[in-house]
Amino acid sequence: MIKTCPVCDSGAKYLFEKNAYRIFKCRACGLGFISPRPTVGEIEAFYDTGNYYCHAENRGYTDYSGLEKALKKMYRHFIRDTIMGGDFDIKNTSILDVGCAFGFFLDVARESGASELWGTDITSASEKIILGKEYNFTLGAFEVIELPENHFDLVFMGDVFEHLLDPFAAIRKLARILKPGGIVLITTVNFDSIFARATGKKWRLLVPPEHIYYWTKESLHTLFSNNSFEGACRSYTVFLTKTYFIERFKMQFGFHLPLYKLFPLQFIPVPSFDTMKCMFRKKQ
């Protein structure tokens, strides 16, 4: 069973099977990917079944709206963070949020002074909410929807890159729609993290076909540098509500965290042990 890495063309080794999909890992850049790759129809059916952002069964989020305050707190940190490039000023810029859900990143961008706000999502649950906020919205998979070229100053892809059916088409589109010097800000899984390697098949983020590609710092750097971007990845701080933190803890370890109700803060700051934040700038 021989597979070739779609990012660096090196050989990939078979790890195990999960949810009827075989999991492979590149021997060079560490990229994880599933086989067989889902079809477009299978992916559309996956996201159209139920509400991905509310009460979804075995996928998505049980209550995405309940994460609003915690996510916005994290996004404000993102916008102030030096990983944004230091000289990036969000005021009067054009922002695109891919996989925008209920528009929380766009809300923070608007309060920070961005002038033009766009969202895209594969789920129809987002459309009414985003249009109600008077943002531009396009429904569909990012790889195939129509967007203006050489237009955006910043594209945000929060927990999206692992879901993409064709990340190679996606990065070509990013190169077209961003202005020279424009920024892509990504949060995604870290398949090379100690946590991912230690938990193996039981890793909480190993959920095919919801997650199709399992990225590492090296694989993302290779992909973006091959498409005229420069940048880097690093860990970051995630802010979680106590309820969400306990839910995810039980999902990973199978039991409730003792005494969690005694934690005094509204949000629990958690280092991103198995996810990463990446900033890539389109070369001038």
Structural classification: alpha/beta
Task: Tell me the CATH architecture.
Answer: 3-Layer(aba) Sandwich
Shape assignment: globular
Give the tally of structural domains: 1
Please summarize the sheet with the most strands. 7 strands, mixed
Which CATH top level class fits?
A: Alpha Beta
Supply the number of helical segments: 8
The radius of gyration computed from the alpha-carbon positions, rounded to a whole number of angstroms, is 18 Å
Instruction: Report the mean per-residue pLDDT as an integer.
Output: 87
The ordered string of helix (H) and strand (E) elements is: EEEEHHEHEHEEHEHEHEEHEE
Report how far the terminal alpha carbons are from each other.
42 Å
Counted beta strands: 14
Measured by DSSP, the beta-strand proportion falls in 25-35%
CATH topology: Rossmann fold
As residue ranges, the low-confidence spans are none
CATH superfamily: Vaccinia Virus protein VP39
What is the helix fraction of residues, given as a range? 25-40%
Describe this structure in words.
It is a single chain. The protein is of the alpha/beta class and 284 residues long. The mean pLDDT is 87. The protein has eight helices and 14 strands. Helix content is 27%, strand content 28%. The chain has one domain (3-282): Rossmann fold, CATH 3.40.50. Strands 7-6-5-8-9-14-11 form a seven-stranded mixed β-sheet, sandwiched between helices. A five-stranded antiparallel β-sheet has the order 1-2-3-4-10, with no helix packed on it. The protein has a two-stranded antiparallel ribbon with strand order 12-13.
